[in-house]
Task: structure prediction
Amino acid sequence: MSQISEAEAVVMEVLWNRHPQGADEVVAALADRDWAEPTIKTLLNRLLTKGAISASRDGRRYLYSPVLQRQAWVAEQSSGLLDKLFAGRVAPLVAHFSERGELSAQDIAELKKLIQELDHD
Result:
């Protein structure tokens, strides 16, 4: 599957949250983006071409549903980020956010819990 652009990912989020949806519903869901309707329809068509979504006829309109699962997309994106920025390693990524003061107390507690669970496997 071809790479999904940032704008296409926004449209995918709408469809991952609720599907199937018609183009008019996707346009309404993205009203806060200040994107023109033709722009959103172009993004839907690109996603169709890439095989990330499917379309089924419903009377005179099409209903769109995701083919690409959100979990698969997140895994691909996170792996690419790790490879590109941190040589495929998680520890430097966490250190980066820690050094910048971007880890909350809740983030740290969740990381500690995850590490404890990994140690017990």
